[in-house]
From TrEMBL:
Keyword Transport set for record: yes
Domain of life assignment: Eukaryota
TM ranges: 15-36, 48-71, 106-127, 134-154, 166-190, 202-221, 233-255, 262-281, 287-307
Annotated protein name in UniProt: Ammonium transporter AmtB-like domain-containing protein
Organism: Adineta steineri
Signal peptide location: none
This protein's record includes keyword Membrane: yes
Length: 329
């Protein structure tokens, strides 16, 4: 491998993608704080660690074979190949995904998506899964669920991509996949012993506000970096990201005010719903539509959560509603 050529890409695009990578990596500890403030006091350290451990497990898996499975050269429908094991590839392969910056930068950027997706699932299973089984679950789930889905939607050989699927920054690969997986995991594990769908367990709202703010900032890299270049599409995605988040926040607070009490935890969920809703389309729509996405998604998820106590499923932090329901606006 010619390392001189492989790493010699001093471009604005590379700087943009590396900055985006750092922002998206920030989102996993931000998610830990967001979730941590919403759970019972007895579960906070467990919840923080469930997100944190994903940064270790998934990145190791991604370097060893995950990136090769998801994006490696192959015509197979399900997985890629073993050709890019341990991120060993040549200069000529840059043109597949990152023509103006190193393929290693692209691999690092995609790794951050692979990390946060299983971390989202942890919010659905709080207090019901021991650490070692959870670690095994994350490793296996990343291999048999995330890697194939990323390949199908984003790879140059992905069959869903060839069918015309448009997913700019992870609506299907990240949010629908984590929402559905969280719901299934909740059903399989069953309810907590002290489960009460009408109770509010949030014990540290400053944590949740901090997590929300950091997620909002990190989402700029999540969506903006998906343009794969420091160009007008990246700028459009950046504006749409913030527009949808702002609209989701204001909509949630207004509905709360109309009903008589503004909830701080709800005000933190609002922008997250807006961010989820705009993610798959942020590079394809104009900012006015992004505002509408945030409003509609916040209204839908708000009223779905009002019906939560009729559900028999113990999805602790409403992963299925926020990440799955937020997409189907």
């Amino acid at each position: 491998m010619n390392t001189t050529k492989l790493f010699n890409h001093d471009t604005g695009d590379n700087a943009w993608m590396m900055t985006s990578t750092a922002l998206v990596l920030l989102m996993t500890p931000a998610l830990a704080f967001f979730y941590g403030g919403l759970v019972d006091r007895k579960n906070i350290l467990n919840q923080l660690f469930l997100s944190f451990i994903c940064m270790g497990i998934v990145f190791v898996q991604w370097v060893l074979f995950g990136f090769s499975f998801a994006f490696g050269p192959s015509t197979k429908i399900g997985y890629g190949s073993f050709e890019w094991l341990a991120l060993h590839f040549g200069e000529s392969e840059n043109a597949l995904y990152s023509p103006t910056y190193p393929l290693l930068t692209f691999a690092a950027y995609q790794a951050t998506f692979a990390i946060i997706t299983p971390a989202l699932i942890s919010g659905a299973i709080v207090g019901r899964m021991k650490l070692i089984p959870y670690m095994l679950f994350i490793f296996i789930w990343s291999t048999i669920c995330y890697d194939p889905m990323a390949r199908w939607v984003w790879s140059t050989n992905g069959w869903l991509k060839h069918l015309g699927t448009l997913d700019f920054a992870g609506g299907t690969v990240v949010h629908i996949l984590s929402g559905v997986s969280g719901l299934v995991a909740s059903i399989i594990l069953g309810k907590r012993a002290d489960f009460d769908p009408r109770s509010t367990t949030a014990h540290n709202l400053p944590f949740t506000i901090l997590g929300t703010g950091l997620l909002w900032v990190g989402w700029s890299g999540f969506n903006g970096g998906s343009a794969n270049s420091a160009n007008g599409i990246a700028a459009l995605a950046l504006v749409n990201t913030n527009a949808a988040a702002a609209a989701g926040l204001i909509t949630w607070v207004v509905i709360d005010a109309i009903r008589g009490r503004v909830s701080i935890s709800g005000a933190c969920v609002g922008p997250i719903v807006g961010l989820v809703a705009v993610t798959p389309a942020c590079g394809f729509i104009q900012p006015g539509w992004a505002l509408l996405f945030g409003v509609i998604a916040a209204c839908m998820v708000y009223f779905l959560l009002l019906l939560k106590h009729y559900m028999r499923v113990d999805d602790t932090l409403d992963v299925a509603f926020v990440h799955g329901g937020g997409i189907f606006k």
